[in-house]
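Human: Note token order:
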Amino acid sequence: MKGFARWIVIVLMVAGVALIAVGVTLGVTIGSSEPTPTPTPTPEAEAEELVPGDANFVASIQINTILTDEDLITAYNEASKEPDIPETVDEALEEIEDEFGIDPRDFSEGVVFGDTESDDYFGAIVTGTFDPEALIESIEEATGEETAISTYKGYQIYTMTVEDEAVAICFLSDDTVAVGQADAVKDIIDVKEGDKSCLSGRGYDTYTALGDVWIKGAVELPEETMSEILDEILEEGEIPGLEAFEDIEVAGFGLDKEGENISLQIKLYFSNAESAEDAEDVISSIITLLPLISPDIPPEVADLLEELSISRSDSWLTITLEITVDEIEELIEALEEA
């Protein structure tokens, strides 16, 4: 799994470095507090509709849109880098193509999912324009492993072992490929064939509520996970009201760019409305008090905090930020000077 996942990570990192260079932030839309009906997959189902119901985490990235955005390309190309980092986006993409025989710009969207409580359940559904036979040959050449072919419900599954991990690949259609651990790939096929339920519930609600954006993700959080995170934070000192965050059941994140405007969204669903209200008070207090207790904060950062929008609807808490590319560049300059 690690070998092929490395390719996915490289693509995400190239996009991520560009986003960070331009300066990326946060925002979210309020969704209904009632769960949406479980979507019914069809042969033409969107990638997100093929995510199995066993997943508790789902995220997507508009790969081609991000890698071809002129603002992000310029920001990455002009950013200072370590000597071993490609100087330009084109150089970075050429390195990926040379090593793996794949041009990431051929892929339009990648949807990844998994179970955060298990190391044995991870999958990805990627759409784009590619030649299945050439793609398999490229992967074999890059990994030095030949694929074994099996059939599952009429679909061919290519399996290879990379760094002691089994990677399964299945072409669901001319423009959609499933990748991941074998169980996850078979579950995708089951969903596509109507033999297994697709993702639904609060996690799916949060994910879809983020809309059609560049990057988004949602994760269902077990109670013990939030407790462990808060315990680590509280080791540095007591923060009044922070216990309210133990009641977060789902967390979502979305990022989008339209022209010069970047919007970031965080959406949190709590087990009860009281905890959501307490969390809202804590965040609002931090935003208000931080410039006062930390007078050395650059004015650009203080202005950014003032632009954060916090809203609550029952058990949903939403944090939104709208910012321009120019404002982000100014913020980066201010932080570098500080």
Notes: DSSP finds eleven helices and twelve strands in the chain. The longest helix spans residues 2-22. Residues 2-337 form one domain. The first strand starts at residue 57 and ends at 61.
